[in-house]
Amino acid sequence: MVFKDFATRFAVMMVLRLPRGYDLLTPQWRYTLLYWMHRPHEHDFRALPLLKFSNRPLLVDVGGNIGQSVLSLYTVFPAATVVSFEPNPTVFRKLQRLTKKFPQLTVIPNGLSDQTGEAELFVPSYNGNILTGLASFDYESAKSWLSSDRVLQFDPMKLTVLSKRLPLIRLDDCGLQPDFIKIDVQGLEYRVLAGGLETIRTYRPVIMAETIRCGSDAHKIVEPLDYRLMEFDGRSFAEVQGEPRRLNQFLIPAERLPNLP
């Protein structure tokens, strides 16, 4: 949940001050409406057709939430097979509803990490609004996003962090051959990549995640495999120099983007 203009940010700030306001702002129907309008919920999904995928690619969605990325993936690749991982049972049921609309969609009630087991999922709540989109297996990541910089008249007494213990698996144990992996796990991208390194080495998928910096753990894991850290400017890809400028970054193997300098 990143707000790119003042009007949107102000509206979200106001909604967060109302009990259940977040649910009013971002229900699944809003993303379904965007799908009907042939618009992905984030602009970066429009970059995918520029990459060297087959007509029926396998797309992996890590952190499926209520299905916004699933709908965006089917907006740009209607014939794709999508596998979506979402460990939070609160939103998993909403995600699972989409399998009725998309028979090529599989949803899996597990988180992905670098080892199999269980971990605490931390979900922030502000003024009665449970912010499932900001859930993380890292407590500080879940707690620190909401602050006076992002919420009008922020009151730390209204912020709580809920937790629940949920199952984790490794991507390498799933037997998938992905062309693309989208990761939204609030700062623990490197653990997902570490648990899928053999899959990545073998099948060379494009990876998209939020705020991957040069030299970060996520970047260093795949850089030796001839992956380039890129951003999409709306027309083409450019290599990231310094701090990221956009919401999402792409880790792209050189052979998937032949026009790289």
Offer a quick outline of the entry:
The chain has 261 residues and is α/β, with parallel strands linked by helices.
Structure, explained:
With 261 residues, this protein is an alpha/beta fold. The protein has one domain (6-256): Rossmann fold. It has helices at 6-16, 21-25, 28-36, 68-76, 89-97, 139-144, 189-194, 197-203, 217-222, and strands spanning 58-62, 81-85, 105-108, 111-112, 117-126, 129-130, 159-169, 180-183, 206-210, 227-232, 237-239, 248-253. Strand 5 (117-126) and strand 6 form a beta hairpin. The longest helix is centred in the first third of the chain and has 11 residues, at 6-16. The relative contact order is 0.14. Mean pLDDT is 84; it is low at 1-12 and 18-25.
